[in-house]
Write a structure and sequence with these properties.
about 110 residues, five-stranded antiparallel β-sheet
Length: about 110
């Protein structure tokens, strides 16, 4: 089993990040995580969350994060409204994460 783990990557609304993974072929899977860089919604600096499929249909804008995997690259695409809506760390309500307060971490497995 071979893996590639990206460094902490800065993201922005409507942005993209491209990384060379060096695995030699299309990875079998990719784990998408966000690491808190500036405290937000109860999360402390250094907390890591694993992204899940979600949306806020009332926002009127595309939000979320997807990854395209190729034989040589991982390409992360961030929605125009940011990486998505998540619950507060303490539970209950939530909100849309602020892209500039989080770092993207991609882990590919082959």
């Amino acid at each position: 089993l071979r893996t590639y783990k990206s460094p902490d990557l800065s993201i922005a609304n409507s942005g993209s990040v491209t990384m060379e993974h060096g695995l030699g072929s299309v990875p079998v899977g990719v784990f998408i995580s966000l690491k808190c860089a500036v405290a937000e919604m109860g999360y402390a600096v250094g907390d890591v969350i694993i992204l899940s499929a979600q949306s806020d249909p009332n926002s009127g804008a595309v939000e979320g994060l997807s990854v395209i995997k190729t034989a040589t690259q991982l390409i992360a695409l961030v929605g125009e409204n940011g990486p998505g809506m998540y619950p507060n760390k303490t539970g209950g309500g939530g909100g849309i994460l602020t892209a500039a307060k989080w770092k993207l971490i991609l882990t590919a497995i082959k």
